[in-house]
Each structure stands twice: as C-alpha cells, then as structure tokens.
Design brief:
Two copies of one chain form a homodimer. Chain A has about 280 residues and is α+β, with helices and mostly antiparallel strands. Chain A folds into two domains: about 190 residues, Jelly Rolls (Sandwich); about 90 residues, Arc Repressor Mutant, subunit A. Chain A has seven helices and eleven strands. Chain A has a four-stranded antiparallel sheet. A four-stranded antiparallel sheet of chain A has the order 2-7-4-5. In chain A, strands 9-11-10 form a three-stranded antiparallel sheet. In chain A, helix 4 packs across helix 7. At the A-B interface, strand 4, strand 5 and helix 3 of A face strand 4, strand 5 and helix 3 of B. Chain B binds a DNA duplex (30 and 30 nucleotides) through helix 6.
DNA sequence: CGCCGCATTTGATTTCAATCAAGGATTGCG
DNA sequence: CGCAATCCTTGATTGAAATCAAATGCGGCG
C-alpha cells in the first residue's frame, strides 16, 4: 500500500498483502523450528481433545492455568482464524464485537487522525490478548503485520465467561497493567526523545520482544532479528517520518552500531552504544 | 521549583509547595460546593461507622458497590493521607509498596529520563485509582499537583484482598482498560500532532475531565475551568516546551478562541474552533 | 535473466518548535 | 506596601526533523 502522506482518510478496503507488505520470511517461526520446543512437551493430551490442546500458546496466553473443563468451555466459544499480512481484524471506533488471542504472527494497534496520519499505539505478539473487552467500542484498529493466526471470541461471550471466571479476569488484569506500563514508557519516547534516541530505544525493544519465544528459559535479547515492520511502520511507531527513520538507521550502520543485511533484518553489533544512545 | 532544563536528574527531596506550586484556589472544590451535592444524599449511615461511610468518592471509586462487610474490611486496611501540592507519593522504579484511591485533588504520573526530561503520562482525579498492584516496581512517579487527600493501602494487603474479591478486581480491570484507551489516544497526540493541535486537544480534554463532578447527571464539558497545571506542566503533558505552550495559548487568546483571566483559569469562547484545531 | 514496481535511500530546502535571552506580571512574604 | 522570587510572556535565532524531490536497488515475476 502506497503509504499515504496525502490527507486522505485511510480506506477500509482490505488489500491482501498489498504494496509489498512483506509476508513472513519463509521458514521463520516465532516459536523456533526446533521440534522439541513445545511447552507442553510430550505430555499425552487430556481426555477431551480440542484445538486448545495443541495450541502453541496454550501455556502463555490468558488461557494458561485454566482447568480442563474451563478450557473446553472456552474452546467451544472461540474459533481459529487466519489473518493475512495487511488484513484488518478490528477497526478503530467500531463497535467492539470480538476479542482474540494471538497464536502466531504480529499485529499492530493503530489510531488515525481524520486526515490520515497514523500512530502505532501497540504491537501484539503470540500469546498477547487483543480487542476491547467490557467496552462498547474499540479505541484502536488492529491490523496484521505478518500472516497471523488468532483465536477469536465474540466479545459478548468472552465478557460473560470472564465475569464468571475470576482467574481469567485476573490474568487479563495483570496483562493490561503490564501493557499500560509499557505504553507509558512509550509516551516518554514519543514526547521527549529525539530521533536518534527513538531509533536506539526501538531497536533495543525489538531485540527483547522478538527474543521472547517462550522456549529457551531465558534467551536474553536477540542479537539478530527480523523486523515485522516496514520503514514506514517503524516511523508510525516512533512518531517520525520514513526519511528520518532511514537516515538514522543509515547512520547507525555507518557508525558500526548495527548491520542491516536486508531491509527487514537487523544485527546489533554494539549493544552498549545503543543503550547509551537510547538515553 | 525552578523547572530544570538543566541536565540534572530530578532530586527526591520534597519541596512542600515549592516554587509557586499553586495550592488549590480557595473555595474551589472538585465536587462542587453545593451541600446537596452528595451522592449518598441524606441516607442514614449503616450500622458500622467508618471513614468510608462519609467518603465523598465512595460511590465512584473501585469501592463502589462492595457490600458493607467488605467495605469494613477494606476500611481497616486503608488509611487516609493528605498530600500537599508538589509532594510525591510514589517514585518511579521504586518497589511498589502502596496503592491508593484519590479522594480529593489532582496528581500527576510522570516518567523521567536520566538527564531530567519529564513526561507526564497520566493524571489522577478524585475516585481514580493510583499505584501498581500485582507488580514489583512502579513504572511512574506520582506527585500531587494540588493539595490532595488519598486513601492508601499497602500493595501487599491490597493485592491479597483483591484476589479474594473478584468484583473489586473486575472494577480495577474496567478502569485499567479505560485508562489504556485514554493513554493510547494520547500517544497519537504525542507522536503525530503539532503544537496547535496539541494545545486545542488538551483544552478540550481538560474541559471534559474537570467537569466530571459526579453530581449533576450530565454536566457536559465545562466552559470555564481552573487548570491544575502550571505552564511547564502543560508542556510536560504535551511533549512541548513552556515557551511553545505560552505562545500557542497567547495565539488562541488573541484569536478570541479562549479567554485566560488568570494564569490558571481558562474560559472556552469558541469550542467549535478548538474542535477544528484539535484535528 | 532481465525488467518493473515499490520500498528505501539520499540530497536540497523549508519549517516548526527548541533554544537562547530578556523583559513583564503575579504571588507571597516581610 | 514594597520587594523578591519565579512564573509567564515575548523576541531573536538556531536547529532538528519534515517536506519536497530524485536516485537507487531490492524482490517478484514473466
């Protein structure tokens, strides 16, 4: 999709993988390709077979720790859905009709002005919860950045179920509080950091978020990773223009702080320098 | 406090009402001065007399709707505390030791960089909940903007109590989700709006937030209100400098959009113009 | 393999807000 | 009442990032 710097409101048509929205690199997996890397390992599935039993985020999403009958109940309410890169799942200001768990892939949460400026206000990774429970409308759009799979629930069903299951609500509360902390840290970046600090902070954040596979006990920040963002999307995360993002990255490359083997790949050569720059 | 644009980290000493931190204007009340304006009106207090029974935010804070024995239990855990303007209640990155309900007054939530730049990431009004439950550290400092009264709980006590009272956790979840929505809307402002749009959005937001007395059924946005912020603090909310805030306000005044009778008072003369400017 | 479409980079220029620097206006206090 | 402190406003200048404009080169496809 040609990035609009025009003043046109973003249309709602779905352009499947339009305009070079990169599909996820072949062979890449958010969970690693090691077949042993399964959190519920070789355990025999419980009595009732359901999609949840084989769910790769089963032990990290809000479903984690629920008893089998509860999982079974949830399982009947939810359904798997594939979302291709660039495809929207939820629209800003629309009635909040569905909520979901991310199983695989990455999605962006965005808000837009009437004249088409966009700000990415959140990024959802596997096991993250998306959507607005207990509310009439959604404050942000949710659009897939990569091909993704999600486990969707009707918001009404979910709300009702959650109110009857305090343990689930508690997990949701913990997640929401953590997300609020992250969001507030990002406000500092948007309001008070300059372009080079923003880029450095962003790269460090990415190296941490993209390393969280949930498999290795503590993988630590990734030294090398593949961005789920185009340059324009990086700009939309940081409140910058695409040109400024490009120039800052070029500078980091020529200073030997990072290597940029492809458009989407980043290798951190001097983490210390990034930490210093991040302020 | 002389606003630091120096690169010194903010010190932690408490400067009571220092540097012209305005105390709340005499006679001003966040709840209106009409004596009939009490949400539980002339009802006879229940059996057990406690501070909660006369609490002015009793029916708006997360305590609302709790049964009497539960209120009694909470009441024994919490204690009232006065916080004078400029006084900190919680420090960024410190262990999360306490949480609180705001009874009266306004507090700011801030994050700071090592070199002393500050961003206000939230504002707490009466009936709002502050602090970080279910977490080890607090991501933001909390400092009173005006003389304030809060109802404080030990975080440990609160966490334990909340986990046993799903209804309380549900209220906290609803609040946290709403706060996350507001925060994300503010990210759009910080990342994508220009100075004049920021100021217009800010004034409209203030006129709504400061009108919420909880007394009149639907008071609507206030036409005239008193800012709980100094110019520097407005700048810290909007990610601007004090000079830019001043210039933008002067412009709105000379354009006849607002009147600024005192440093802290704002009267909106042309709401439509503000809405247009807010974008 | 070579071409085409776009995303990205790079360069030139502009502009908006930050910075630097005084000069007023409130407020509180002696 | 007058002074001091400091908050706020206003002006001049700078500067960082946006904008405008044009190459460049990657990636997909025939």
């Amino acid at each position: 999709m040609e990035r609009e710097r025009t003043r046109l409101p973003p249309s709602r048509r779905f352009l499947p993988n339009s305009g070079g929205q990169a599909t996820w690199p072949p062979g890449f997996s958010w969970f690693g390709t090691d077949p042993d890397c399964r959190e519920h390992g070789g355990l025999i599935p419980p009595i009732q077979m359901s999609a949840c039993d084989t769910c790769i985020v089963r032990n990290r999403a809000i479903c984690a720790g629920l008893e089998d009958p509860e999982i079974a109940a949830l399982s009947t309410m939810g359904r798997r859905r594939a979302v291709t890169a660039g495809e929207p799942l939820i629209w800003e200001d629309d009635a909040s009709l569905l909520v979901a768990n991310v199983i695989e892939g990455v999605l962006k949460l965005t808000t837009s002005t009437a004249d088409g400026r966009e700000q990415i206000v959140g990024v959802a990774y596997p096991s993250d919860f998306i959507g607005r429970p207990f509310g009439q409308t959604s404050a942000a759009s949710v659009v897939a950045l990569t091909d993704a799979r999600v486990c969707v629930f009707s918001r009404n069903d979910f709300d009702r179920y959650a109110r009857e299951h305090p343990e689930l609500e508690h997990k949701l509360l913990e997640r929401t509080l953590a997300e609020l902390d992250r969001t507030r840290a990002w406000m500092m970046l948007l309001g008070r950091k300059n372009a080079s600090e923003k880029i450095a902070t962003f790269l460090l954040d990415m190296s941490e978020r993209l390393a969280e596979t949930g498999c290795a006990p503590h993988p630590g920040p990734a030294k090398r990773f593949t961005l789920p963002f185009s340059r324009q999307q990086v700009a939309d995360v940081l409140g910058l223009t695409i040109e400024t993002v490009s120039r800052q990255l070029t500078k980091l490359k020529s200073d030997g702080v990072v290597a940029l083997p492809t458009r989407r790949d980043v290798e951190i050569l001097d983490r210390g320098a990034l930490v210093t720059l991040a302020g």
